[in-house]
Specification:
821 residues, alpha+beta, 6 domains, 31 helices, 13% strand
Length: 821
C-alpha cells in the first residue's frame, strides 16, 4: 500500500498471532520498510499491540525478527527497524538478542545532535537498561537534547527525564571538566545538579534559597574558584556530532541541556560576594554566548542574558565596568536592552545620567598615571604602559636595566602579583577597544561636559586619558589638543581652564583650519585612536537638494548581506536579515534621539536562485542598496518585500503617513555622520572590494558592477585616503617607486608597473591593465610606514602592504601571485 494504514497494521498484528515469521515480514514490509527508519507517534498503537501479545508470541516474533536481520535481503534500513521492533517486543523475555548490533547502533546514535525524528530508538536504550547496562554518556546526551526540542514526543520526554547520570551532557569541555571536578565531592556535585534545574527565565526565591543552602557548607570562595575555571572553557567541544559541528574554529551552539546548567551557574555566582574575577568571567560568558554561528546566529542568547542579569545584581566597580564595556560591544537586541536597563538603574540610584554612569564605570586597573604604572615586585619594577590601543608589560631589574622576559625572582616570589598584572593587561586591552568605540559614537551624542568633570573623567583618567589626549576638543569654543603635558591651541598656546567642553568635529570648521590641525597632529606625532581630524565630511550636494527628501549617493551597490548586517549592528543601526520568503522588512535604521530623527537606508535582497543566492537557511547572500532618508524618530516604520519593491509606510488605524524630513533641513553633523556610516557599509561590504570576484560572481551577472566599483571614481573615504597617501608616500622606504595619480597608487616593480585602486585595493598591471588578484591577509598591517595620523583604516593598511610587496616583486614567492606576473 502506498499510504501506511495504521489501523490495518494493528489488525494485521492480531491476524498474524501464531505466525511469527509472517508477522515479522509484514511489519517490515508494510510499515517500517516504507518509513526508512522514521517511527512517528502514529505507531504508538502498533507498539502497544505488540507489547500486549503473550510472551510465547513475542518470543517467536523476536526470533523471527532476528532471522530477518540476518537474511540476505535485509538492507541497513530493515536491520535498523528490526532493532527498534525488537526493543519493544523483547520486553520481559529471556535472553538478549542482537546485543552487539544494538550497542553498535546506539554508539552511532551517540554521535548525533538529535534523536527527535528517530524517537523510537529509545526502545534500544530501554533494552540496554533492562539488560542491566548503563547507557553511554553520549547516548544520554542525545536523548536529553532531543527532549528539549519543540514538538518532541511524550514518550521520549518522559524517558529523558529518567536519565539522571551523568549530571551534565558530555561533548563540551566545560561540562566534562565540571564532571571531573565534582566526581568525589558530593557537595559540589549537588550544587552542579541544582544548576541544571535553571529552566526559567530568572531564579525564584525558592531556587535561590536552595542554592544558598548548598553554598553555605562549601564556602563562597570555594564555590567561586570552582565555577570560574569552568566558564573559561565554555564554547569548546570535545568531539564533533556527525559533521554538525559548525564553524572552522571548532565552535558550535551550546548543548541545550548544559545551557540550562550554565544559566544556573550565573545565578549562583550572583549570590556570592562581589569579586573582580566573577565580573570578568560573566562578561566573557556574555560575549562567548553571543558569538555568531553561520546559518544559526548567536550561540545562546539565553545564557548571555542570564550572565548579564547576574552582572546587574553584583555590586562594585568591577561589575559596573563590565556592564559599561559590554554596552559598547554587544549588538544583540535582547541583551543590549538588559544592559541598558542595568546601567540606567545604576545611574538613577546615584542620581546620574546613563552617559555619566558609563564614564564613571571605567576602572583605572592599577594605573597610577595616564597610561602608566610601575609597581615594584621585590627588587624588580614592572612597567605597565599603554601605547595606542594596546598595553605592554615590561620589566626593569634592580639596577634599573630593562629585561625582555619576566625575571625568575618574580615568578618564584610574586606569582600572585604577576597573575594580577597579566590579568590587568588583558582587561585594559578589552576596555581600551570598548572606550575607543564609545568615544567614536559621541559625535552624534550632543554631549557637553563641565571642564572640571571632563578633565577627571577623560583627560586625566588613567585609562580613558590615553585616548582623550589623542583627540581634539573645544573648550569654550576654542579648539585644543594635548601635547607636551598641556592642552594647547593651534599655535601651541596652553589652555589651563575653561567652562564647557565638546568633542571637536570637522564639519563645523573651514578646510584651512582642518588642514592646519592635521599638520599640528603630525608635528606632535599624535596618532588618533580613530579618524577625527581626517574624518570624512559629507556635505549636502546639488543632487540631494534636487531630490529633496532622500540621498542616492550610496544607491545601486551590491553588498554582502551578513557583513553589512554585522557592521550596521556595530555602528548602532537596527536591521533585519532578508530571507528568500514571502515576507516584508523595514529598512536598516539608526535612531538619533538627541536630534529627534531616524535615519533609514533602503535595501533589498538580491537574486532569485535558492542556494546560489542564499545560505542553506534561506537568507540572501547579497543585498542591493537604495536611498538614504530621514524621518521624525516616532514616525511609523516603512516596509518593503524582502526581495524588492516599493517601501511603504503603515501608520496605525486613523493616522496619516508621515512625510520624510527635507534633507536640506537635516543638521550637517547628522547628515555627515549618517552618510559616513553608509559609506563604511559600502566600502567594507561591497562585492567590488573582493579581489576574487573578477569573474562577476554567479553567471557573471555582477561583472559590470565589480569593475565600475573596483576601479571607478573614489568615494569620500577613498578621497581622504588619497590625500593622506600624498603625504605618506614621500616618507616610505619605497618612495622612489611610488606615486599617487588620480584614483590609484602607482608602484614600479622590476616585472611590471602596478596601479592599486585607492577605494577597493584592487590592482591593475602593465601591459594592458591586466588584473592582478592578491587576497590580503586578515592581519594586513602597515607597520613599515612609520607614523600614521590615525588608527583603524584597514584598507589603507592593505594598500600599503600590497605596495611594499609589489615594489620588490622579484622577491615574491607565493605561487598563486607568481602565476599571474
Amino acid at each position: 500500500m502506498t499510504v501506511v494504514d495504521f489501523q490495518e497494521i494493528t489488525e494485521l498484528v492480531r491476524q498474524y498471532v501464531g505466525e511469527a515469521d509472517g508477522l515479522a515480514v509484514e511489519l517490515l514490509k508494510l510499515g517500517a520498510g516504507r518509513n526508512t527508519g522514521f517511527w512517528d507517534g502514529r505507531w504508538d498503537g502498533v507498539f502497544a499491540e505488540l507489547r500486549a501479545l503473550p510472551s510465547e508470541a513475542r518470543t517467536a516474533l523476536a526470533d523471527a525478527l532476528v532471522g530477518q536481520y540476518h537474511s540476505a535481503e535485509a538492507g541497513p534500513v530493515v536491520r535498523d527497524n528490526v532493532l527498534i521492533l525488537l526493543g519493544t517486543v523483547e520486553h520481559g523475555l529471556p535472553g538478549d538478542r542482537l546485543q552487539a548490533e544494538r550497542l553498535e547502533r546506539l554508539d552511532e546514535l551517540g554521535q548525533r545532535n538529535s534523536a527527535r525524528f528517530n524517537g523510537h530508538y529509545l526502545f534500544l536504550a530501554e533494552a540496554e537498561l533492562r539488560a542491566g547496562r548503563p547507557l553511554a554518556p553520549e547516548v544520554v546526551a542525545v536523548f536529553r537534547r532531543s527532549a528539549l526540542e519543540p514538538y518532541c514526543g511524550k514518550l521520549l520526554v518522559e524517558f529523558a527525564g529518567t536519565l539522571t547520570e551523568p549530571v551534565l551532557n558530555v561533548g563540551e569541555a566545560w561540562a566534562e571538566q565540571a564532571l571531573r571536578d565534582t566526581l568525589d565531592d558530593p557537595g559540589r556535585r549537588a550544587l552542579l545538579r541544582h544548576a541544571t534545574t535553571a529552566t526559567a527565565t530568572k531564579p525564584s526565591r525558592l531556587w535561590e534559597q536552595r542554592a544558598e543552602s548548598l553554598i553555605l557548607p562549601l564556602g563562597a570562595d570555594r564555590v567561586r574558584t570552582t565555577l570560574l575555571p569552568w566558564l573559561t572553557l565554555v564554547g569548546r567541544r570535545t568531539f564533533a556530532l556527525n559533521g554538525e559541528l559548525l564553524g572552522p574554529d571548532g565552535h558550535s551552539a551550546y548543548d541545550p541541556y548544559n545551557a540550562n546548567a550554565l544559566r544556573g551557574l550565573t545565578w549562583i555566582l550572583a549570590l556570592l560576594p562581589a569579586h573582580p574575577d566573577t565580573a570578568r568571567a560573566l562578561g566573557a560568558l556574555v560575549e562567548t554566548s553571543l558569538r555568531k554561528i553561520p546559518g544559526l546566529g548567536p550561540r545562546n542568547p539565553k545564557v548571555a542574558n542570564a550572565a548579564t542579569t547576574a552582572l546587574s545584581r553584583i555590586d562594585g566597580e568591577a561589575a559596573l565596568a563590565e556592564l559599561a564595556r559590554l554596552a559598547t560591544r554587544v549588538t544583540y537586541k535582547g541583551t543590549l536592552k538588559l544592559l541598558d536597563t542595568a546601567l540606567r538603574t545604576r545611574a538613577e540610584a546615584l542620581g546620574l545620567s546613563r552617559e555619566e554612569i558609563e564614564e564613571l564605570a571605567v576602572p583605572s586597573y592599577g594605573l597610577t598615571g595616564v597610561g602608566r604604572a610601575e609597581p615594584r615586585l621585590g627588587e624588580v619594577t614592572a612597567v605597565l604602559e599603554v601605547r595606542g590601543t594596546r598595553v605592554f608589560l615590561g620589566w626593569r631589574n634592580a639596577a634599573g636595566k630593562e629585561v625582555k622576559s619576566v625575571p625568575a625572582a618574580v615568578k618564584r616570589d610574586h606569582a600572585e602579583e604577576l597573575k594580577v598584572l597579566k590579568t590587568a593587561v588583558k582587561d585594559i586591552d578589552k576596555m581600551l577597544s570598548a572606550q575607543s568605540e564609545r568615544l567614536d559614537r559621541q559625535f552624534l551624542g550632543r554631549r557637553t561636559w563641565p571642564y572640571t568633570a571632563w578633565r577627571e573623567r577623560y583627560l586625566d583618567h588613567p585609562l580613558v586619558g590615553t585616548l582623550a589626549r589623542r583627540l581634539l576638543w573645544t573648550v569654550d569654543g576654542t579648539t585644543v589638543g594635548f601635547a607636551d603635558g598641556e592642552l594647547r591651541t593651534l599655535t601651541d598656546h596652553p589652555v589651563r581652564e575653561g567652562s564647557e567642553v565638546r568633542l571637536w568635529h570637522p564639519v563645523s570648521h573651514e578646510s584651512a583650519q582642518i588642514v592646519a590641525w592635521r599638520d599640528w597632529l603630525e608635528r606632535h606625532e599624535i596618532t588618533q585612536p580613530f579618524k577625527q581630524a581626517h574624518r570624512e565630511v559629507y556635505l549636502l550636494t546639488d543632487a540631494e537638494r534636487a531630490t529633496g527628501t532622500y540621498s542616492n549617493r550610496f544607491a545601486a551597490h551590491v553588498l554582502r548581506q551578513h557583513q553589512f548586517h554585522s557592521l550596521a549592528s556595530i555602528r548602532g543601526w537596527r536591521n533585519k536579515l532578508r530571507l528568500m520568503v514571502d515576507d516584508s522588512a523595514p529598512p536598516a535604521t539608526r535612531a538619533l534621539p538627541q536630534w529627534g530623527l531616524r535615519a533609514e537606508y533602503w535595501i533589498h535582497g538580491e537574486g532569485d536562485e535558492y542556494g546560489d543566492d542564499t545560505t542553506v537557511s534561506g537568507s540572501y547572500l547579497r543585498l542591493t542598496t537604495d536611498q538614504v532618508r530621514f524621518y521624525p524618530i516616532d514616525a511609523p516604520k516603512n516596509e518593503a518585500h524582502c526581495d524588492g519593491g516599493e517601501y511603504r509606510m503603515w501608520p496605525e488605524a486613523g493616522a496619516e503617513p508621515v512625510e520624510p524630513v527635507q534633507i536640506a533641513e537635516v543638521p550637517p553633523l547628522v547628515l555627515s555622520e549618517v552618510l559616513r556610516d553608509v559609506d563604511l557599509f559600502v566600502g567594507v561590504a561591497s562585492i567590488g572590494n573582493d579581489p576574487t570576484w573578477q569573474d562577476g560572481g554567479p553567471e557573471g551577472r555582477f561583472e559590470g558592477y565589480w569593475r565600475s566599483y573596483g576601479f571607478g571614481a573614489l568615494g569620500q573615504a577613498a578621497e581622504t585616503r588619497r590625500t593622506l597617501l600624498e603625504r605618506l608616500v614621500p616618507r616610505l622606504a619605497i618612495a622612489d617607486r611610488c606615486t599617487v595619480e588620480g584614483r590609484f597608487l602607482h608602484v614600479k616593480g622590476e616585472r611590471h608597473t602596478y596601479k592599486i585602486h585607492l577605494g577597493s585595493g584592487n590592482i591593475l598591471m602593465t601591459p594592458n591593465d591586466q588584473y592582478l588578484c592578491i587576497v590580503p591577509k586578515s592581519d594586513a598591517a602597515a607597520s613599515q610606514t612609520g607614523y600614521l595620523p590615525f588608527e583603524g583604516d584597514r584598507m589603507l593598511a592593505v594598500i600599503l602592504s600590497k605596495a611594499m610587496m609589489l615594489a620588490e616583486d622579484t622577491r615574491i614567492t607565493d605561487p598563486t601571485i607568481l602565476s599571474q606576473l
